[in-house]
Amino acid sequence: MSINSTKNKNVLDFFSKILESLSEKERSVIERRIWLNGDRETLQSIWNSFSPPITRERIRQLEDTWIKKIGRIVKTTDLNNIHKIAEEILKEHWWLLVKEKLINATIKSLWLEENINNNIVEIIIQSDYELLKSKPKLWVLTYFHLPGISKKSLDVIHKEAVNILKKKKDIMKTEVLYNMIKSNIDKEFPNSSIPFIDSVLDIYQDIIKWEGVFIWLEKWKILNPKTLKDKAIYVMRKEKIPMHFIEISNKITNYLWDKVKVSTIHNELIRNNEFVLIWRWIYALKDWWFTPWTVIDVIADILQKNGEAMSTEEIVNEVLKTRNVKKTTIYMNLQNKNVIDRVWRNYYQLKK
Q: Minimal CA–CA distance to 201: which of 255, 165, 148?
């Protein structure tokens, strides 16, 4: 039966029969690592279950040996199609791909159901001795690759990307960055293609891509969809001038293709101390050292625009639209006789 016509149950049945050919110890560790019969366990918990305990690295070594043993058996079954598909996908992506992307692409290519145990597919792919799986490394995602990939080329591409972005100090178009990288490393690695550079930068967690169009350093936190504050800061640093809150909203849309409500961005500017109100609806970044527009400035502007006396309640409501201050602060500023006149009980106007 072809794997293309089987569903999840058939894959599980094939795999269960393969596990039966392993020793009890081998089968136990593999099953526990892929939560075949329960919750997936960590290397730490498996390590602690042995008597005497063995090291995490030793478990990895044993696991690799057993998985290759599984691979020899897979080659004699219909599950070998998973090997072939995974190899084809890797070749399409220039011999290297992040683990999750390879697994998902393989499942999709074989028309398997989405609820299949991805860990089984991963073990089967890893059991292919034509493929190699990366070892755990800080800030690097696990990836699969074909033999012949130069580990040095990965580090060089990553280093070039970081250096260019740091020098640019700004978000870049992926196409522009990739061409610059290729030009810089062409003498040392003449066969590095743009698709290969793209696949390589997928594995590094300090590099962030956005919809295949833009790229930046993770520490900049430029386009975190949950952080409107970061988007406003990015726009203001790019413009390098104080801006009206409506203009900030428009620039976020222009630069980042993210529509935000004017009222939402205004609320964000009010409540975060990274921004300073320096004039009527005009904001600057705190580290630009602009003198903040004081509460008395805001009150004076409100009274001037209104043109006539206003009640305490009316003034308080207007001030709170632009300043996140306590009402008592507003009441105290209304007692500033150099700027404000009280015309009758609870009514104020600008001093003439």
A: 165
